[in-house]
User: Fold this.
Amino acid sequence: MGEEVERVEPSVEKGGWDVIVVGAGIGGLSAAHELARGGARVAVLEGRGRPGGRILTVRPEPAAAPVELGAEFIHGKPPELLALAREARLELEPVAGRHFELAGGEVRPAKDLNDVLGELERARPTDGESALELAHMRGLDSEHGRWFQHFVEGFHGGPADRVSARSIIRQASVTETQARAPQGYGALIDFLSAELVNAGAGLALGCRVETVAVTGEGVVVRDGLREYRAKACIVAVPLAMFQAPRELGGIELEPPPPEVQFAARRFESGLALRVTLRLVEPVPFQAALPAGSFIHALDEDFPTWWSSSDPKDPRLVAWCGGPRCAKIAGERRAGAAALATFARLMGQTLTEARGFVRDVYVHDFGVDQLSRGAYPYELAGADSEVELPIFAGSPPLLVIGDFFDADEVGTVAAAVKSGTSAARTLLGSGHAAAE
Ligand SMILES: Cc1cc2nc3c(=O)[nH]c(=O)nc-3n(C[C@H](O)[C@H](O)[C@H](O)COP(=O)(O)OP(=O)(O)OC[C@H]3O[C@@H](n4cnc5c(N)ncnc54)[C@H](O)[C@@H]3O)c2cc1C
Assistant:
């Protein structure tokens, strides 16, 4: 995947930039795009050998539909992300899959989670209450409780006894509608990267930043080898990079914005693994269900599955979130565990089931040193009604990320909103203006 390739363009090293953006995920790229559009000279420094971060779309063959290894869905109708999608001419299709349970070889309609969430939404979680405590306190019967735990861990990526109950209730309404991009989320990354190049911005890959310091003249950004200077800087890396010490690959800011330190205590990095199986033909349990269905098998290592709607290129996506991921960390183990679950769901031996599978795709963002988790969840006990800003700091050093919007925490939408609004603030402050 070329994650560690180093490609620092000479033009980036030469300097003369108004703003340096650290991190070329969707948040950093949206910020850089907004800055370049506003007339600022921008350089983006990215630690990997590719832009996109936790958006990672691969194409098995030129004519085949893309495979998402990271983000796939747009939850709700986030205005900044939808505006960007329109600008990039990214086609979106609604996701309206029905939910089924597969147990003991039988498929039946799944418990309606909206009923459970609706009931809990009316409850008022107390300070510090975890999702699991909320379920017990509001007397969910064990069957509903099991489904609720399955939802919390699968969707929010943290253990139900650590995820804040208040955050679950707060975010429940945002997740009501969903859409996806049939041409792949990566098309948005390609669009933004091309726009930046056309605008004369610099994009340096394989450039892992260790420190960012504010000086009298602006900012100094350092990787292991080089030093870059600019009038201002936007840091757009995952939350875990602020939680890890520098000697273990974290990033150090001088001075550290207090809101980042607050967010680092309030959120933890959750785990999620998705494994895509490209199939030779639709398998029996998939063929019997409406296209795009979600299939739940609560006791399995991979308890959530969904099927593609294209019968010419049939696929199944296996999903596992929260503490179960820690047991099967790493791409090889995750792939093997997904295949083992697949064989059990099919009621076949591993060898028989393997015969249905053309290829297996997975990237584990939990062990990936430049993400160190899939997405953040709000921690019970550290949750708060205090509203976080959309980004942290003040010019010349701003920090953005998917951990600043408590209503949409851990989403592409939150990262885009944070990035664009930080860029507008810098442009308005005069720190990003060309002389
Ligand atoms: C498996 C999975 C499924 C997901 N599903 C969805 C979904 O369906 N819908 C949704 O909205 N969200 C989803 N998400 C979450 C979503 O991907 C993220 O919230 C979003 O992509 C965050 O964007 P970002 O730019 O803030 O961070 P990132 O995409 O992580 O980008 C940060 C960039 O900074 C770089 N970086 C890190 N440290 C350094 C350093 N020291 N120096 C230089 N560069 C550095 C990284 O390499 C990375 O490219 C999913 C995530 C995962 C892992």
In short: The chain has two domains: 10-91+182-268+386-429, 94-180+272-362. Confidence is low (pLDDT under 50) at residues 1-6.
